[in-house]
Amino acid sequence: MLFDDLEHALAELDRTRLRRRRRVLDSPAGPRVTVDGRQLLSFCGNDYLGLAADSDLVLALAEGARQWGAGSAASHLLGGHLRPHEALEQRLAAFLGMPRALTFATGYMANLAVAPALVGRGDEIFADRLNHASLIDAALLSRAGHRRYPHNDWAALERLLAASTARRKLILTDGVFSMDGDVAPLDRLFALAERFDAWLVVDDAHGFGVLGAQGRGVLSHFGLPASPRLVLMGTLGKAAGVGGAFVAGDERVIEWLISRARSYIFSTAAPPALAAALQKSVDLIEAGDDRRRQLQDLITRLREGLAPLAAQRGWRLADSATAIQPVIVGDNRSALELSAHLERQGIWVPAIRPPTVPEGSSRLRISLSAAHGAADVDALLAALRTMPPTQPETAH
Description:
Elements: H1 2-15, E1 32-35, E2 38-42, H2 55-68, H3 83-96, E3 100-104, H4 107-118, E4 124-128, H5 133-142, E5 145-149, H6 154-163, E6 169-174, H7 186-195, E7 198-203, H8 218-221, E8 230-235, E9 245-249, H9 251-260, H10 262-265, H11 272-286, H12 289-313, E10 316-317, E11 324-330, H13 332-344, E12 347-348, E13 351-352, E14 362-367, H14 374-385
Parallel strand pairs: 2-12, 4-5, 4-6, 6-7, 7-8
Antiparallel strand pairs: 1-2, 3-9, 8-9, 10-11, 11-14, 13-14
Helix pairs in contact: 2-11, 3-11, 4-5, 4-9, 12-14
């Protein structure tokens, strides 16, 4: 019975073109990857600065492993907090201009740590409707009231906050939204947090390393002042090129997370070699203005080429000025067919479908890196122009 249900459920995923399948790469991450014995020009990853295969970073990782071994062997609180972990946290805090930082093995774990530690029953979380799945799960785990406001609609958020009688309030948002590439109005959200005495928790997974002065992220991008009510999460496997995540904020917030954040307390610390490499990564980010300029030039080139093509084909471009450039085509079949057409041309761009994005907004998610060149963007645009027209998928 149980397996019959699973078989039927899997068949339904196939019918609706929603089953996920992994691809195996036989090459390091980068603009060109080898998949199934074939080299493809990739616009898949989140390696925004091209650091994942950077030779200096690879050497730092190898040296970290030689000096500190392969694993941490314990949780941070039970003997697994090694000197590279401590040095990385201090480096991140100084780079961000925050009192303290706390590192995690993954961004998902970092997000699961914060909201449930800061609010609970009788409190309320006010969350953007397009927040990442980890933020949604964190809100549910907190057991606080979960109020969702329309995407980036700070006026609607203001009304919800004004009507709330909760003792503690927490505004929860992505900084850069991972499927649309647009940026939250953090200046407005911070003003509301100040006015209504709320926490403002920001997931900066896709802004850290790319936006703001020297890549300091979305808080720097908006010029927000240091505030005890600001809590910042950032991942270290995207623009930073390695892996893991951090939470940065007030000294008291970090101390509270160390004692009360379950995903921190009950997890083995990441390998110390990763922390050693990430110290080098922060150096490269800080000195990476040339990389960020290259990335911005590619974003402009791509958008200028996509605009007339989208108008001709009936596609919609998201209002994004970041490295994430979605081409929204609508139904699942059209997105999959467009992705397959590009792969036949030697270009890999993933099709993103529900539940990752809302129904009717399936898309190609084009992700740019400073390691791409202008010729790569031109090749992608040329391949998109050769896509035959398709008929929209009809419901059955």
